[in-house]
Amino acid sequence: MSTILSPSTNITPSDGPNFGVKELASGGDSPTVDIVAIHGLDGHREASFTAPNGVLWLRDLLPETLPNARILTYGYDARTRGVNRSNQALYDLSIDFIAKLSSFRVYTNTDARPLIFIAHSFGGIMLKKALIHANATHIKHLPAHKAVEVSTYGIIYLGTPHQGIDITDWTRSLLRCFSITSLADGPIMKHLGLHSETLQQLMAEYTAISGRFQTVFCYETYDTLGPGATGVSSSLHFLESFLSLIKPSKHVPVISAVVQGSVKTEVIAIHKDHLGLAQFCSVLDNEYSILTEHLLLMARQAPAAILKYWEKHNPTLCKGYQWSNNPGMMLHILASLMN
C-alpha cells in the first residue's frame, strides 16, 4: 500500500451524517490506545483533516504509523453562520462530546482504554471544558464520563486559542458593516476574544487538572493570505482571513496557542497556516513526522501509565488481580470491572 499516493475521496461538510464519533481505523486485533481527533468551528470530522490532495491523514497515513491505535474522529454542529447556525454554547457542546465519546467506548467495551486527543483550534477549548466536567464527576455517578478523564494520557493542541483571538471593536464594526454579525456576536465567538473572562476562568479550572496529561502545544508559523486558502473554512479562519485581505496575519499567535508555565508540556512550531496545522499530504511531510513522533511516544507510554493511574484512582478495581504484560488485556479486564 502506498503511503504517499493513497488519497481519500474528497469530502465536503454536506456529505452524510457528520456528527458524533466515527471510527477511521480499528487498530487491528489488539489495539492498546484510542486516538480521538476533534475539529474546530465550522469544521468537519473528516474534511478538516483532509489535505488539498485528498489525503485524510488520520485514515490514510496514521494507521501505518500507529497500527495498534484505534483512530476516531468526532464531529459536532460547529456552524456559526447562516440560517442553520448552531445556537449551542461551549458548555452544551462539551457535555454532548463527552457523552457521545463515553457511550461509544462503553458500547465497544473499551471505556478504560488509554486516550490521546488531537484537537484543532476551537476543538481544544471544547475538549478542556469536557475534561473539567469529567474530572468533577464521580466514578459511581457518571462512571463513563469519569473514565474518559481517568483514561486520558496525552493531548496535542493544534492552534487552539487558549488566550483567545484579537477581535477588536474596530473589527466588530467592520464586520457589521458587511453584515457578518454572526461571526463577532454568536454564542461561541463572543467568548473567544483575547483574554476573555470565559477563557480565563476555563484556563484556571483546566490548569488544576492538566498536570497529569502529557501535552504538546502546536502553533502555526505561516500567515493565511485570504479566505478559503486551504481547505474547509472555519469561523476563526473566515474572520481572520477577512481581515487578512487588508493585512495577512496568523489566526492564533503563539502567545495564545501556548500556555506558558504548564507542566509536562512541549511546544512545537508547525510550518503551516492555521488550517494546514491539521492537514498532511504524505508521510514525507516533515511536519507529519514531527507530530507523529510525539504520538508514537505517547502511545508507547500510555498503557502502563494509565493502568497505574487506575490503580491509584480506584485501587478496589485492581485488588486481587495479577496483571499480565499485555496492556490490552489489562485494560480489557478494567473495562469489564467497570461495567
Would you mind describing this structure in some detail?
- With 339 residues, the chain is of the alpha/beta class.
- It has 12 helices and 7 strands.
- The protein has helices spanning 57-60, 62-65, 90-107, 122-136, 143-151, 169-177, 181-185, 197-210, 235-244, 254-257, 286-313, 327-338, and strands spanning 20-25, 33-38, 69-75, 115-120, 152-158, 214-220, 265-270.
- It has a 7-stranded mixed sheet, with helices on both faces.
- α3 (90-107) packs across α4 (122-136), α3 (90-107) packs across α5 and α4 packs across α8 (197-210).
- The longest helix is centred in the last third of the chain and has 28 residues, at 286-313.
- It is globular, with a radius of gyration of 20 Å.
Helix and strand layout, with pairings?
Layout: E1 20-25, E2 33-38, H1 57-60, H2 62-65, E3 69-75, H3 90-107, E4 115-120, H4 122-136, H5 143-151, E5 152-158, H6 169-177, H7 181-185, H8 197-210, E6 214-220, H9 235-244, H10 254-257, E7 265-270, H11 286-313, H12 327-338
Parallel strand pairs: 2-3, 2-4, 4-5, 5-6, 6-7
Antiparallel strand pairs: 1-3
Helix pairs in contact: 3-4, 3-5, 4-5, 4-8, 11-12
What key attributes describe this structure?
339 residues; alpha/beta; 7-stranded mixed sheet; 12 helices; 7 strands; globular; disordered C terminus
SS field, number of helical segments: 12
Structural class computed from helices and strand pairing = alpha/beta
The helix-strand sequence is EEHHEHEHHEHHHEHHEHH
The number of strands is 7
* Physical arrangement of strands within the biggest beta sheet: 1-3-2-4-5-6-7
Rounded to the nearest angstrom, the radius of gyration is: 20 Å
Using the alpha-carbon principal axes, give the shape: globular
Sheet with most strands = 7 strands, mixed
Uncertain regions spanning at least 5 consecutive residues: 1-16, 169-184, 226-237, 239-250, 317-339
| End-to-end C-alpha gap | 39 Å
Helix content: 25-40%
- Report the mean per-residue pLDDT as an integer: 76
Percent of sequence in beta strands = 5-15%
